[in-house]
Amino acid sequence: MVLGVGILSTANIARKNARAIALSEHCRLTAVASRTLSKAQDFVADTGIEGVKAYGSYDELLADVDVQAVYIPLPTAMHLEWIRKSALAGKHILIEKPVSITMEEMDEMVEVCKEQDVVLLDGLMFQHHERHSLLLAELNDTFTGPVHSIQSSFSFNGDKTFLESNIRVKAGGDPLGALGDLGWYQVRLALLAFSAKKGAEQAVQLPTRVWGNCSLFSEEGVPLDTHCTMEYACTDGRPPRLARFDSSFRSAFRQSFEIVCLGERGCSDKVFRCEDFVIPRSSVGASFSVESIPSGFPGVDHATRIVTSTDLVEVRGCRQEVRMFDTLARLCDGKRVYRAEEQEWLGYTVATQKVCSALLSSIRANGAPVTLT
After folding, report:
1. What domains are defined for the chain?
2. Across the strands, what pairs with 271?
3. Does the pLDDT value for residue 247 go beyond 60?
4. Among residues 228, 258, 218, which one has the least CA distance to residue 352?
């Protein structure tokens, strides 16, 4: 099956994904819609892809029988309306993050998609990269202890124009601001890592409680610089496991993580590090490192250097944006034989929204902890 994909909007990120659709062996770009026909026509012309239809309204695209799925890079405030309309038109959906503004909206989106039997997948490219699959395999390895802590950063330094007019700093566009635009990735990373070693249990593991602070808001009250914590309480007397992250539109560009796993039954402690986990610096290759450290204070050699070992895990030739559309096509297969996998993807999407919504509540309450149930 080759999935016919339409794009609702000519936003900048849509250009990258139009190319990804064209490079996928399982998808084809069928149509592009904008609020004006000329914008859609210019977008299609710029892609250089033949046979793509241009529409001057989103409703026209949804009426196209050659479109089986839609990619929606619209502002978050518009997601509920167009997810509902797309689902009712029988179109599978790949939606940009953050998916919704509130959990009530998220629940409504999930419900209409389930009623119409269409896929709802959020547009996080990094989790489709083969590098990420290898990371999860390492975290699930017998010789890797449970995740103890995660530290991550995702930020860039928005210029004056961005901070004044970009939709991501507008309450009527993307009111979660840096938390939704950047923190969404970090929350997902933590959920995936802390859900490792779950065995037969497929449900995502939510943190016990979360809290967040914001040092800077836009003029419309949208978070621009956030520092957040996700806490997983332990019932065996051990201290809680924590994921701490900062997400900012007012810092240098960073996209790094450090995952610490404590060894058990004689296994070494391990530290996983990556400096480009969201957007690989190269389309040719991507990597992460694994440092193995003897438990306790590590020994030193004759030169008083700490004795550890570090391995580099590398992946060559994987384009995560193409793999994302390959996943969409697989989930939308007419036989729908991937129902269990589809539910797992959706479970992580809902959990990410739940954590981000709780963190925003904590930020609005000056950092008060919010318990998740």
Report:
1. 3-123 (3.40.50.720), 127-321+354-371 (3.30.360.10)
2. 260, 291
3. yes
4. 228
Confidence of residue 237 (pLDDT cuts 50, 70, 90): confident
Tokens of 267: 């296994």
Asked if residue 204 lies in contact with residue 195, where contact means CB atoms within 8 angstroms, the answer is yes
C-beta contacts of 299-303 below 8 A and 24+ residues apart? none
CA–CA separation, 263 vs 269, rounded Å? 4
Please write the tens of the pLDDT for every residue from 154-200. Answer: 999 999 999 999 999 999 999 999 999 999 999 999 999 999 765 54
- Distant-in-sequence, close-in-space partners of 291: CB < 8 Å, separation ≥ 6: 270, 271, 273, 308, 309, 310
- Edge-first strand order for the sheet with 209-217 is 309-316, 285-293, 269-274, 250-261, 147-157, 241-248, 223-232, 209-217, 370-371
Tokens 């990556």 map to which residue? 274
- With tokens 């954590």, the residue in question is 355
What is residue 295's predicted lDDT score, i.e. its pLDDT?
77
